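FAQ: What does the model actually see?

It sees only this:
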Amino acid sequence: MMFAGMMAVAFAIDCVLGWPRAVFAALRHPVVWIGALISALELRLNAGTPARRRAMGGLTVILVLTAVLIPALLLQLMLPDGLTGLLLGGVLAWPLLAVRSMHDHVVAVARPLARGDLGAARQAVSMIVGRDPTKLGQAGVARAALESLAENSSDGIVAPLLWGVIGGLPGIAAYKAINTMDSMIGHRNDRYEDFGKAAARLDDLVNWGPARLTGLLFALASGRPARAIRVMRRDARQHRSPNAGWPEAALAGALPVRLSGPRVYGDLIADEPWVNGAAPDPDAQALARGLALYRRTMALAALVVLLFALP
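And it is asked to produce this:
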């Protein structure tokens, strides 16, 4: 109950403040600190035969989780009982959520797209996706922003909330460490295929439940749950990711638009299947509807956390 209360406090603070630039300039961000440790370990350990790289990747996972879990556990144990501990725990968990920042990043795409400024929309979407923005038209920009909104609703909000409710500060901190490792080294390329295997598999595991829960929340908040759930059940498993397809398919069914499909990363073309392929391409209006649905979904998620926090 106390853990749920802490997450409710963290959620409320993040909705109001996000992670202010002044705080970022002074302290950076916990994910930046975790990323620096991952980078340092990868530079020293990612070498040798494939078997050695896999072993060193596993060791990296253990070292990063140890470095994150020990201080998080100590802080959790030092929290006083009662309301003071709940509030302090919420403040400490606050930086590990991304409710406000996700919304702001997508709004930064939606506004220029709505006024027909494709160049500014491309620039804004390049901040949240890895594909080449110069190859994207209006539909491609809207699609990329919606896909990022769907996936990061799970990775950046629902999953850390869930693991925080389950495990308090150690739970949410461990999740963010795992997710950061996956985003940095969990890629299927020559450099990371072996070294990042343990991180990628662990990330798949800890996101299994949150991804499906996020899809369900999108569906329930949409006002069209049957359609969103039908698309999610039909198309989620066609996605390249074992987890991201669930919130993405639910969002696609709720709006309704088609998502995923072929995309360009540098010189590579990824020929991915469509999600909700019979629906129209998204446009600026669809992106605005997606943001409205995101806000309703986050309100629903907050309500669920508050219900767990009640005595």
